[in-house]
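pinned: reference chain
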Amino acid sequence: MAAQDEAPAVYQTHVTTDTRGRTVTHRCRIEGFSMQRTIGGSPPMWATEPDSDPVSRSIWVMPPGWEGGWHTNPQRQIVVPLSGRWWVRTQDGVRTVMGPGEMHLGDDVDAVPDEVGRVGHDSGTEGDEAVVLLMIPVAGDDRSCSGIVG
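pinned: its structure tokens
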């Protein structure tokens, strides 16, 4: 937890493409927090400015054992697991497991096939529980992942 006068460290996993069009995974810090009143007369809290680029939202439920195969995101989208655990594997070999509340920015819409024909990422459920995902398609560029940490 951040001190009252220090912005919190909030991270998201980012699946994107490198200069060759191959998918890669890294974590980045979400920046732009400031202490502000967001709800009427409530006390100030840490918040980023509202982003006007979300275009819709949906809920996806993947049953236990579900695996999507190699594919690209249908559009840039923020994915937030609400329950259960799921994984994403990119062409660079990174396999990331995420659970409730861990944000993921799916940003590989321009991915190209690698030397064995895989394109984009693979994903699936982890464990014996269904996964409920909040899907929020977004427009714009990758500015939301400017604080790369690894």
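why pinned: The mean pLDDT is 84. The CA atoms of residues 21 and 141 lie 16 Å apart.
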